[in-house]
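We now fix the convention by which a protein and its fold are recorded. The integers have meaning only within a learned vocabulary of local backbone shapes. The record below shows the convention in full.
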Amino acid sequence: MSSSSPIQLIATSPMGLEAVVAREVRELGYEQVTVENGRINYTGDLLAICRSNLWLRTSDRVLIRMAQFEARSFDELFEGVKALPWADWIPEDGEFPVEGRSHKSQLSSVPACQGIVKKAVVESMKQRYGTEWFRETGGRYVIEVSLLNDIATITLDTTGPGLHKRGYRKIATEAPLKETMAAAMVLLSRWQPQQPLYDPFCGSGTIPIEAAMIGWNLAPGLRRSFNAESWPIIGEELWEQAREEAYDSVKDDIPLQIGGSDIDGDAVEVALAAAKSAGLAKDLTFKTIPVAKALPAGEYGCIVTNPPYGERLGDQSEVERALRQFGQMYKQLPTWSSYLLSPSKQLEHYVGRHADKKRKLFNGRIECNLFQFFAPGGLYGWRKDGEKQEAAKDSDN
């Protein structure tokens, strides 16, 4: 396979963020994009695997779609998998575990499907390598068989540990927000780097750190490794090219006005440690104060936050008190927009204002809404100079 050969790729997405992930894929330059529940399909090449893993902020992982076919019997599944060019991707010493899932399909036994796929891959590779035994001591190639309505989708995982694991968070608070969701909240807010951004329930600091990375155009995957980095078919040169592109794209000369606070001093310590690990300690501010005193400085800013709630932590009465205090504080920021992720059905009541817009999202398995309160200057607030910021409604907001 040449480095420019077309490859069918899948960027997996948390529920509700498919349009955001699709926008990110298009911004990387890949236009042949189709959106399904939980996945964005697009066409790329070997370099696209590197770029996608380094740059996608809101996707969970990047997969190669090896094939999709009907499989109502184990024979159909076996023959469909065996026919694929596995030896083009997996070297003789490659480790190739098989994961699986099945929904509304005749082949409902996931362990049995995994065993069939493993056997079919071995048989396919025997034909190329002329051996009966594979040691599996080399690089990792995770294969997944996913059955839905008797259609088998066979994929190869290029990522490894999920893309939310940026590498800067060594420890976390009790109920941390995933980095991918934090990045999505910032992107959906349409915050611009010249604006102030503040998180009054910052916890371990994920939202301010992700905002800083967006503001400076820092590729979120620069501080970590990926399964596909050890794959001979891609090689070191393409990974080096993608990383050099990412380093050349950094805009760290932009002054940032990003901060956060939390009533929990231990959480703030975690946030400070994470900011230091991310190389952003000098550019972010964190304070230990209650939300009632968390009045950010500046005008035309943006609050992006994930308030505590009963399903995650804390006493419900404390949660209600914190939201009421937020509402009182927010009244003092007439030119600021605000975006709160919460499962609370009474959040607008506690805050004392109807949201201008709500968007259903899932924080892990918890169904939430992103409550969007716009500043009076328009859909996405005001520019720093006080002029109205006009912005068209996008399909992903």
Q: What stands out?
A: Residues 378-395 have pLDDT under 50 and may be disordered.
